[in-house]
Amino acid sequence: MQVFFKSIERQAFRMALFACSNQDDALDLVQDAMCKFVAKYTNKPEEEWKALFYKILQNKIRDFYRKESVRSRWRVWLGGRSEDDDAEPLEQLADPAGRTPERETDNRQMFDHLQQELKKLSLKQQQVFLLRAWEGLSVSETALAMSCSEGTVKTHYFRATEKLREKLGEHWL
């Protein structure tokens, strides 16, 4: 179980971070998903774990969006701002070992641009793209994780890649 969590923790964190744009919230989402997975699915076959875990994470992200929607209505009404509005959470993820400062700057700029374009996608397109392209889940595993049909996964993945290709160019995808 520990090996499984080690193998997906960074990708799951990155996915949650794209969804909520706050490092602490992303860590909470991943931790909650891991706890729920352990409580409900450890008796399932190991080959099903990845899709089941991402299904739980997707549900946690959807719940987060619902809660944030309610909170944002209250913030507007009360005139408050959320904390860390100007934070750049992906800057914390860069691994500068062995890279030149120029290359590191270029990489950061490219990933900042990628993050901006990913955020412009609908939540479903964003999550399907991350599960398929970054996590390597199959269409059927992604459909299971997202609680939707395989056709929906294919449609959202196609639309996401087309939009990203249009904005980022062919060399990205």
Short description:
This protein has 173 residues and is mainly α. It has helices at 2-20, 23-41, 49-78, 101-120, 123-134, 139-146, 150-168.
List descriptors.
Rna Polymerase Sigma Factor, Chain: A, Arc Repressor Mutant, subunit A, 2 domains, mainly alpha, globular, single chain, 173 residues
Structure characterization notes:
Helix content is 73%, strand content 0%. It starts with a helix and ends in a 5-residue tail after the last helix. It is globular and about 45 Å long. Helix 1 packs across helix 2, helix 1 packs parallel to helix 3 and helix 6 packs across helix 7. The protein has 173 residues and is mainly alpha-helical. The model has no long low-confidence stretch (mean pLDDT 82). It folds into 2 domains: 82 residues, Rna Polymerase Sigma Factor, Chain: A (Orthogonal Bundle), CATH 1.10.1740; 67 residues, Orthogonal Bundle (Arc Repressor Mutant, subunit A), CATH 1.10.10.10.
Secondary structure layout:
Blueprint: H1 2-20, H2 23-41, H3 49-78, H4 101-120, H5 123-134, H6 139-146, H7 150-168
Helix pairs in contact: 1-2, 1-3, 1-5, 2-3, 3-6, 4-7, 5-7, 6-7
Shape: globular
- How many individual domains? 2
SSE order, as H and E? HHHHHHH
CATH level-3 fold name of the largest domain: Rna Polymerase Sigma Factor, Chain: A
Q: Radius of gyration, Cα only, in angstroms? A: 17 Å
Which percent range describes the beta-strand content? under 5%
- What's the total helix number? 7
Distance between the termini: 32 Å
Uncertain segments are none
